[in-house]
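Methods — Computational structure assignment.
A single polypeptide chain was analysed. Its primary sequence is given first, followed by the predicted tertiary structure written as structure tokens.
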Amino acid sequence: ACSILREALKRNPSSSEIRVMLAKVVENLEGPAEARLILQAEIQSSDRADNTSGLVLRALGSLEAREGNVGKAREYYSILADRPARFGDAEIIKALHAWALLEVKQGNSKEAGLILGRATSISPRDAGIWRAIAELETRQRNFNQARDAFQRAVSAQPSDPRLWLAWGRMEMSAQADSRACELLEKASQSSVREHTLPMRQYREVKRVQCDALREMAALAMRAGDFKLCQERCISATKKDPSNAHAWRDLADVSMKDAGLGAMRAVYDKALRSVPQSTQPKLYHWLGLEERRCGDPNRAREAFEKAIAADESYISTWTSWALLEKETGNLEESCTIFERAADVASRRNLRVPFLFMTWGRVLDREVGDIDRARGVYREGLDQNQGFSPLYQAWGQLEERQGDISSARELYCKAYEADAHNGS
């Protein structure tokens, strides 16, 4: 795919669509630095970012946001957002939406609200923007304002089950369980037929319907109706047999109802039902349950199967390493962390929590302070600007009595993310 797209861009250098597609593929294969060069080439060829296509600017903003370069992401989004907007201008709307989500992640809810307000002035009936506003109000527990925004969203697009699902979740947060159930039922029963939608959209609708049933099961459990909860969990797996989370819900309920054997039977059935790409996640969850229930051998077996299915699923490596730590196999634990770090390096994966967990094991369990420092340094080399890593390293130095180094690391943590609580 990469070679084909490179050739296509060579023949059509002005095609922003091909450029963005190529950048996505290259980012997965070679990392963000190479993808950035491909996207920035359009800016260089047009002399000014102002003349760059909105698609490329938005792609650059998203890339920088993923890499934690918040200032640079804002710069690209603002260049696009500050252009003269036509009524309903899709690219500017998408850029404002992405920018608002970035600000939410930074804890800047007020700024996010202002950005979304700009979007509504360009496209007053954009259901996605009104949903974003509703979810922002929900985060701030302004439930009446959230309801107003959801009403505008569903008025603009009443057939979209994602809106009813999101609204139902808001009512759950507001403890309005009866209203939540009504909305979730609308989402779960949205009428779609496979032949009326492209396959990708059809699958998305089935996923939403399944998620609505999962939320309804949670409501039943909250109301103390265990039988209804179990029935809805089963319905969710039937609605979308490929949904790993639905199977996990059913396994949890089965465990409470009939014990460990019933839980294992659900996972066994799930592994025969989900796509192969989803199996590592299920093996990982099964391993976590076996670990929690005190069977390290079964847990280890499940983790090994998950890694054999997909070595890049780093969460499994971390869980396996922690299992070995808990069972007293500290050397084996560190070996597993090291293997995971090697996979992450080869696959260009950003996995800062792997290094943070590994560093803490070396520091607090093994007592190898120098090696722990090396792990934190390696983690920050691969995940620049990740605040919790600076914080973990700072805690190490504080315990070692090096207050100056600790203070410097805490300052870096704060600079990287002022909302992290360093």
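Note: Residues 199-222 form the longest helix (24 residues).
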